[in-house]
Specification:
Layout: E1 5-8, E2 54-57, H1 76-86, H2 91-95, H3 118-125, E3 128-131, E4 134-137, H4 151-159, H5 162-169, H6 172-189, H7 205-217, H8 219-223, H9 228-248, H10 255-271, H11 276-293, H12 305-324, H13 331-345, H14 365-375, E5 390-395, E6 398-403, E7 423-427, E8 430-434, H15 451-454, E9 463-465, E10 485-494, E11 500-508, H16 512-515, E12 517-526, E13 531-540, E14 549-558, E15 563-566, E16 572-576, E17 582-587, E18 591-600, E19 606-619, E20 623-631
Parallel strand pairs: 1-10
Antiparallel strand pairs: 2-10, 3-4, 5-6, 6-7, 7-8, 8-14, 9-14, 10-11, 11-12, 12-13, 13-20, 14-19, 15-16, 16-17, 17-20, 18-19
Length: 633
């Protein structure tokens, strides 16, 4: 159970938001001169001057809770078999105690359920690994791991995820020589399994588990050549890796790596001889690990879409191993997969691509669609992901995504980001406001030196105090102290004129210890999707009042291809989208400047973009900063 609490207030009345300088401000919008009235909790859904709308309170959230899944029910004999295998008795002894172990072989051929990248596969045939736009010659790869590679390349090489790319680009007879040549080089550099995990990147649990699974799923590529010695060597490596996973899976670097290790164990139990005991052992461990990794609304505890995608992909491949033997996977495995898909869909925009959260980049819609298609899960996006923490509002062609939860706990984070109360906003498939994203692909065309900066609060569309992160961003994807509690309230609003809106209000305590201020953000999206009103409030908190002023910056990173022009009064900007539509941004106070930014596209490549920054000094006694994003015409 996570220590961080995601709670909700059930009394979102008008007096819950303190007033301050800037309250009830009027923001000129051109013709009509509508007013932005967000402070004091009275968010106007229709035109200025309309009576305050009535609201329908959405059910409050609950504390973060883990999913509860039980391993498959077994008879007494199978329970005894699983127990004996856990004690270290070999599977061959348990299945045939009076017979010599048979030669290693595969019991079935798996149909790969997840197609790879034809472009990356073509690069492999040409002699290069292609990872996030960077080509790495195969001949120069140190497969032994003495010379460290960029993290994305390391994962691709040592997990053998590239086998799917090779399979996607050519007929088997053309792909087999390439796969066997690369695998031969890897085996030569890794002749023995180490005594424990961590002996180089090849022997992390995440890479070893994924490698065992990928070897078994793509066995025709690595076992179809005429060289019998190579075939025997590969089969021996499969069995040795499976035994190594049996012994070391409990030492995994994190829960996601443990799930990968268990998937490799179960796949080996299915497809290698005398594997029933190993399969029973692996199924129990896998279901338990998944129950500890996944919250009760289906989101992984790392809060990262990358982790969500990885778990879905592992389960899809493992299910294909069951199907190859005409066996049904455990019911709990299908139940977990059904839970995992809706939260991931909740972070997609109108074009089907992914939002940039917790290290992820704007992964292409086609890639996500292929993953969902292979899962076999037919569902809609989860609108209100209370436990995972991402709120989603759909208003006709507009989609709003809002991070209303603390960052993941340090033990779960791989690419932890200080993104609390950041948002993304898109309309008609075009992104207006984004987060930079891409720390998870740093080391491709996205430089490694930017990895920590991409995880910072300033790399997200939210408020930053004194250029400090709301949660400490540490090296190697880790995070430290900061936001520990987030309050969230969600309401549907209607006015007397029949217009409606969705109102989100959330606050975090990440700046309270250092500056004595709580950040509260209110977002109101009209039901027609043409107007997003917001207000950022800094509310005094803590036991001791603090004097003086502190610098603030409210950042709005803009989508690619948007042409921006600042207004003459310095309090607004016009935004021209690639489809020709025009949007206007206005602030109720403070000066707006235009700065450069960066955004990771669907392939993890850096794209230059711009950001609007509302900045200035704010009293330690607090303040209000209202703003409006409105479609013109």
């Amino acid at each position: 159970m996570a220590d961080a609490l995601i709670s909700a207030r059930g009394d979102a009345s008008a007096d819950t938001v303190p007033t301050g300088a800037g309250a009830d401000m009027a923001v000129p919008l051109g013709a009509g001169n509508e007013e932005l009235l967000v402070s004091n909790g009275a968010a106007v859904a229709g035109e200025g001057g309309a009576p305050p709308p009535t609201g329908e309170l959405v059910e409050p959230g609950r504390a973060l809770a883990l999913a509860d899944f039980a391993p498959p029910s077994l008879g007494a004999g199978e329970r005894l078999l699983r127990f004996a295998y856990r004690l270290g008795i070999p599977g061959s002894t348990l299945s045939s105690p009076f017979r010599k172990p048979g030669k290693p072989r595969l019991l079935a051929t798996v149909q790969n359920p997840l197609p790879g990248s034809r472009v990356a596969g073509t690069a492999l045939r040409a002699g290069h690994f292609l990872v996030h736009g960077v080509k790495a010659p195969i001949a120069q790869i140190d497969f032994g791991g003495v010379a460290r590679m960029a993290p994305p390349l390391e994962r691709a090489v040592h997990s053998f995820a590239w086998l799917a790319d090779l399979e996607a680009c050519a007929a088997r007879e053309q792909a087999v020589p390439v796969a066997e040549r690369v695998l031969g080089a890897w085996l030569a550099a890794n002749p023995k399994v180490p005594g424990k995990p961590g002996k180089g990147p090849a022997w992390s649990l995440a890479n070893a588990g994924a490698r065992e699974l990928n070897w078994l799923v793509h066995a025709p590529l690595i076992l179809s050549g005429p060289d019998k010695a190579h075939r025997a060597r590969v089969l021996g490596a499969l069995e040795e890796t499976a035994r190594w996973l049996d012994k070391n899976v409990s030492r995994a670097e994190d829960l996601l790596a443990q799930v990968a290790g268990w998937c490799g164990i179960v796949a080996a139990g299915l497809l290698l001889p005398d594997g029933k005991a190993r399969r029973l052992f692996g199924e129990a461990g896998l279901i338990k690990a998944l129950g500890e990794l996944v919250g009760d609304d289906g989101g992984v505890l790392s809060r990262s879409p990358l982790g969500q995608i990885e778990v879905i992909g592992l389960i899809i491949k493992l299910r294909a191993c069951y199907h190859a033997l005409r066996l049904d996977p455990p019911e709990a495995l299908d139940a977990i997969l059904t839970m995992l898909v809706p939260p991931l869909l909740a972070l997609t925009h109108g074009d089907g691509s992914l939002g940039s959260w917790q290290g992820a980049w704007a992964i292409d819609g086609d890639e996500l669609a292929a993953l969902i298609e292979a899962s076999g899960v037919r569902t809609r996006p989860l609108r209100d992901v209370r436990q995972w923490g991402y709120q989603r509002v759909v208003a006709k062609q507009s989609i709003l995504q809002f991070d209303a939860a603390p960052p993941p706990l340090a033990k779960h984070a791989r690419t932890g980001c200080a993104s609390t109360l950041a948002f993304e906003f898109s309309h008609g498939g075009h992104r207006l406001v984004v987060n930079c994203g891409g720390s998870g692909c740093a080391g491709g065309l996205m430089p490694v030196r930017l990895e920590q900066g991409l995880r910072a609060t300033a790399a997200h569309s939210t408020l930053v105090l004194d250029d400090a992160n709301s949660t400490a961003v540490l090296i190697n994807g880790a995070i430290g102290t900061g936001v520990s509690e987030v309050e969230i309230d969600r309401r549907t609003l209607t006015s007397d004129k029949g217009t409606g809106a969705t109102r989100l209000e959330a606050s975090h305590n990440g700046y309270e210890a250092r500056y004595g201020l709580t950040h509260r953000r209110i977002l109101i999206l009209r039901d027609d999707g043409t107007e997003l009103r917001g207000e950022d409030l800094l509310v005094p908190g803590g036991r001791k009042a603090k004097n003086g002023k502190v610098g603030f910056a409210i950042r709005f990173h803009l989508g690619a291809g948007i042409d921006v022009r600042l207004s003459e009064d310095g309090q607004g900007a016009g935004l021209a989208l690639p489809d020709g539509s025009l949007w206007q941004f206005r602030s109720g106070g403070g000066q707006i400047v235009l700065e450069e930014s960066i955004w990771a596209d669907g392939q993890g490549r850096p794209q230059p973009v711009q950001q609007l920054v509302l900045q200035g000094l704010v009293s330690r006694g607090g303040g209000n900063f209202a703003w409006l994003l409105k479609k013109m015409g």
